[in-house]
Sequence to fold (181 residues):
Amino acid sequence: MREHGEQCEPINQSDYEAIYERLHTDIHKCFLAIAWYTGSKPSSILKSKVSQFYVDPSNQVVRSRIIPSTKEIPCHKDLKEILGRYRCLKDGFLFPSRVCQGRHLSRQAFDKAFKKALREAELEQKGYSLCSLRIGFIARLADIGCRPELIEHLSGLKNGIASLSKYKPLEEQIETAIANF
Fold:
């Protein structure tokens, strides 16, 4: 694990899949998928309301455009499938607390499940944390050649590309760009 204050590592596709498979509840899998496919901050995801993701939660009808934080974006097909299987309440928080009625799931509760999945996947040495999902989202956008303005719009960061350089060295970005060219 990283020391306090050090940067987290961006999660890659295969590690995301390994972590996803080792989460034991639908609530944790759905949270991870929203973070992976939207790049939203964990705190924003935890505060999400059912209406931001569902047209008809009783029948699990997912919105075609979701609102994971403050802006509306198209829902990725894989995320739509995961949300379609997730059994949520009819209204209120998308991830309600099991212990505190009227509150959302705590970050500590998800972090505990996330760290357990990292151990089970033998990925704890990689320095992943919950912020790794957001940074991985930004890195994937950069890797597929998205314009900086689009990365900034989708991530909500004022300078998404500069932010990425803290997590992914320029040489690694160059190699990825050439490989994907």
